[in-house]
Amino acid sequence: MVITQTISKSIPSSTSIRPFILIDTPGFDDTYRRDIDVLKDVSYWLNLSYKEKNIKLTGIVYLHRITDVRMGGTARKDLQMFKKLCGEESFSSVVLATTMWSDVSIDDGNRREQELRTSTEFYGSMVQKGSTMFRHTGDRHSAMNIIAHLVNRRTTTLLNIQREMANEGLPLDETEAGRELDGEIIRQREHFNKMMRDNQAKLEEALQKKDDERARELAEQQEELKQRIDAAQKSRDELRVDMEKLFQEKDAEFRKAMEELDTERKERERVLEEKSKDLESFKKTISSYRALLGIGTFPSSFCRLPTDIPTLY
User: Fold this and answer.
1) In terms of Cα–Cα distance, which of 173, 177, 190, 169 is closest to 236?
2) What is the pLDDT of residues 103-125, one digit of tens each?
3) 225-237: pLDDT as tens digits
4) Which of 80, 83, 60 is nearest to 72 (CA)?
5) Cα separation of 124 and 131, whole Å?
6) pTM of the predicted model, to two decimals?
């Protein structure tokens, strides 16, 4: 999976291997989008393509920067969600590709690659169940090696999230990926609740000491924490959606987006039409002045600056 904010499709030019389509999906470490939105978008596309068009994936490419000294909490969460989405039965169709090799020394890169390959906390369990590691060096050749490896296997896979929602009829919150995200949301909520309790004690102390500035600061922190707790609960509520409801929700979002685009298009056309009218009015005004001065008809190239105007210093 590649980090992006929307799901997009790319059809590469003809190659020596069979034709293929690349689907770029957002990751769970997106700064600007909630994890629940990413999960719903990915689940929607995967289940829609499978249920309505009978499309199965040939493979999945998961990218990781080899320059990362360690895999932090966000990256681990992203990897764990990826594992739950795919399921162990699809691990053999996964390529774990490391990137940015030109920005790391060979020794450091080899050491980090080995750690990723052998540690069950990272890729170890996936490699043991058939996932393949590749180095993507940023050029077309290494990219096509990865694609050729997947395409030439001539197999397809059904991901865990597709099997659970499309075949078994499970709602999103009962899928493995949904339960994983729900657990993460609960942990975040408990953390925020603890911070609120700690802040409340500090706030009461500040009020007793009549430290108004400190009390105001803590009250603002409490309000921010409350908003985060409310947002976490909202995410949990949004997880409780089955495939049919998810389709309806995303279809409604698509229609709304199309309506907004159509409104923007009409507004652009209106502005352009007004500017065209203003330009025509301006042409007529200048033509009238030229006629009064006896200059003659108004040339179509009036917008071009004359070249014989002397430069003034």
Assistant:
1) 173
2) 999 999 999 999 999 999 999 99
3) 999 999 999 999 9
4) 80
5) 9
6) 0.74
